[in-house]
Specification:
The protein is mainly β. The protein has one helix and four strands. A hairpin with a 5-residue loop joins strand 2 and strand 3.
């Protein structure tokens, strides 16, 4: 899978938000196997930076804004 850090995407809500991926979280089991990949994204709301720590790659790829 490609590196999605830095990708800008739009959420699918009634009021979509423009978010930017800032980090990648990977979870491994005791055997050292990768079991889960999640991304951290940020968006601005009323002058504050809001962070979402559990974004799946499909959400990012579906709403990706190509620049």
């Amino acid at each position: 899978m490609e590196n999605l850090i830095g990708v800008v995407y739009k959420t699918r809500h009634k009021h979509p938000r423009i978010c930017t991926v800032v980090d990648k979280l990977e979870t491994y089991n005791s055997k050292g196997e990768l079991v889960k990949t999640r991304y951290v994204s940020e968006h601005e709301f009323l002058g504050q930076t809001v962070t979402d720590n559990d974004v799946v790659p499909v959400t990012i790829l579906r709403g990706r804004i190509d620049q």
